């Protein structure tokens, strides 16, 4: 499992590590990635076959399109507002691809004030639903019930 966080969100690093541990029962370590993202890598590395990436919609779409060959995980979760970006156009070559559920009125996933829900960072409703489903041992079932599957 890898969990990419943009450098401008690095202040959330410790809170995100706690979220990952609490929701997926994985320890993480910070590993170098690139000039745009920090990477929390699950330990053991191959425990979960999921690639999480946080950030702005168009940047994530471009990143995934340009770096798909470097993403070895079979499940990709792009945590972004989405909006007008069509993630379904990304050819993820038989992999599962998820985004947060969108508001039907304006096609956005709102960031909620995390402190109102016991978190130390702002997050989407899908992330809260995923966190609260942690008793289910099937990670794919949890993703299916908390995020919107595009592929």
From TrEMBL:
Top-level taxon in the UniProt lineage: Bacteria
Q: List the protein's name.
A: Uncharacterized protein
